[in-house]
Amino acid sequence: MKQILQNHDQPIEDNPFHCFFEEGDVLILDRGFRDAIVSLEEHGYVAYLPPSKLRNETQLTTEAANKSRLITMCRWVVETVNGKFKNSFKIFRDRMFNNTLTKTFTDFKIAAALIKCFQEPYEDSRYTDDFIASINRNIHKTNLLAAYVLENNLNRQRASFIRLDANNPEVSDFPELTYEDLIKFAIGTYHLKIARSYCSEHTKRTGVYEIEVYRHSEQIDIINDRVIRSQSHTNNVLIRCRINSRHVRSKTYYTYLLFNTAVSGIEAVKEHYCSCYHGNRTLGSCAHVISVMYYLGWARHNERDLDHPALGLDFVLVDLEN
After folding, report:
1. For the chain, what is the mean pLDDT?
2. InterPro entries annotated for this entry (predicted)?
């Protein structure tokens, strides 16, 4: 990108990049462009890329996590279009040999024409207005439960975790949700697809959800934008789940959900927090929170629809002794 912007072989007014883009245009990038941000801004462009955590920090701040979610929502279209090319045409999945580069763009244009002709174009989600309303409502919201967890050092407190199943009395009062509720809460379907895989992994094809849960014994309330311990009875329930990372086998995350048993539907979920990289987010939530909500609020009530992605891979390796 820096080379494109500073092409010394031609005047700036003849640079194709500057002819196509105008000053003030917004460029939504990934972290690979971090070294080119200053050059882009010097030429009058507005560049956004997902923020990184601060030095010596283990998580993004709530503000940074929300900003990251906004950017990745916009970049999703770019990534899925790239995916269309790679899934439909094997030649674009791998690196090209130098001697093929002269023909590559011609091949790319042919592939684009075939995709445009035979595949359905993207359209706005029917939940777009709900997504925008959720963003406007939560973009500047503080993660109250994160403050409570860190203040009381709950991540380091020992607890007797038990395995979840559909009839476990520890979570029997968790509100039943619709799939539409989950889509609106997650601001899209991406995290729900990951949640489906999480459920499949944790049920181990046995039907018992093996994410471990601990029900907080103290009464908790939300007063003056703070989650505090309450001396009187409330309908708020705090559960803590222990979930293994899908990227690092030895890593475990603690996921917290505060819900109100007197309220039905998605409105019952008052606060959420996770100890993972994006766990402070208030725009939707991380995949760990979604996976617990997905199972407790929807999947265990719709077991016929709880399938297992890539189930056939279980039978690739055959035990010859048996």
Report:
1. 84
2. Znf_SWIM (IPR007527)
